[in-house]
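Supplementary Methods S3. Complex input for the zinc ion-bound model.
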Amino acid sequence: MRSAFFMLGVLLCASFSGLVSAEQEWPGEPIDNHVHLTWATLTLEVNEWADDNPDIVDLTSTGQSELGKTLWVVRLSDWSMETKANGSAKEIIYIDGGHHGNEYLGTALAWLSAKWYINGWNDGNEEAIQVLQNSEIHILIMLNPDGNDIDTRWNINQVDLNRNYDHYWNTCPTTQPGSSAFSESETAANSNYMNTEVPDADLYVTMHTGVWIMLYPWGKWPEQPSDWELFHYIRDDVHESISDIPIQNANQGLYPNCGTSRDYGYGVMGYPTFTFETDDEQFVPGTFESLHDRLGEEMDVMRYLIDNVWYWRARLVLDELLVDDEDVTYTISNLGHASTRNATLQYIDGTNILWESNNFTANATDSFTATSSGFPSVEGGEWRLSYQKRVVDSAQWVNETVELSTLEVYSFSNSDITLLWILQFGALPLFVICFAFWWSREEKPFQLGDAEPLDAELVD
Ligand SMILES: [Zn+2]
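Predicted complex, serialized as structure tokens:
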């Protein structure tokens, strides 16, 4: 039946290929009853992207497959700028596809995620330009080229690459996880890229197909992850305005699984991570349908995740600071959609921490005021906020300098306090004395002539 659809598809392709624009075509060729992107075709194409778009496409690789095929990584950003226009660091997004060589629509979404931004940039699309000016998108489109080219789930050693990561490896009922964590060159290369090139990513999406669902951590445990607040926010936001795609904890939404790139990405790297299962079909169907149409809704979800990457972590801002002798009162807002714990406000001199507040928790999109004591009477230090980007233990720590010029600072030393006391409590009696004096002069109204004797005295 599948081959009958395939033949129909080939006939339709042959008849109507002239009607489908080059931009919309799946760039592969029909192989093994599926419309299929081979590693050779991908290699030609990503090199073309880099040659044609040197301003935004930086092509690199993170090693080779077991059979020696290059693992291409397409890096997209406006490379004329190292940072954002305001000088701050660009957000980092990491995407991979093709862990399982027979899940073409998953690989296709990774390919489409790159193509959408390349086309958008060249078409002057405002959203694509904004994203590439403010972030870097790193996409490893095909992680398992050996398995891909022979249409199999496994790599060439018959290992399930998405059970081969070093996070509770081989601790669930599973098949073919490999001889040890990272025993395969593909997974070792992927984790190497995460650790060396994109350790500070604020989004990681790994793409598969077979069930139409998005899975967040954990696969290992049925419990919600520490950053459930962030994952639930994204789930609700996507459901409200973009797609009804189910979004669940992987263990409950699919089945218990261990040693996955998703659990590794979150549990070891601290990324907010999703497994994007793009379709109910594991194989590309026989009918010919452009990827843009077939994966349009999934691409809308990807664009949402990428456009809003700035929010996928805690973002602390110091709104108000009051130093009252030894007591420091601070008002802090969290603009991000992830919470953070064990954060501190610090007063530093170079690398030396002169003072730090009590540890505090900052809930997502919330603000609070607190007071900590023990502030030393040392001037000339700098203020900074030290916190984890997310709640999970593996989340990255950041130390962010506070620009005092942008907030209201009230600082009182001991002598200031004395002066303040005099002003507050000394003003009333002073006023009473002045008023009484003025009142006593009331019976002798001031007249111009009164000034003459005074002038006379001066003349003397
Ligand atoms: Zn898969």
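The pocket of zinc ion is lined by residues 99-100, 103, 162, 208 (CB under 6 Å). The chain has three domains: 2-311, 316-412, 414-459.
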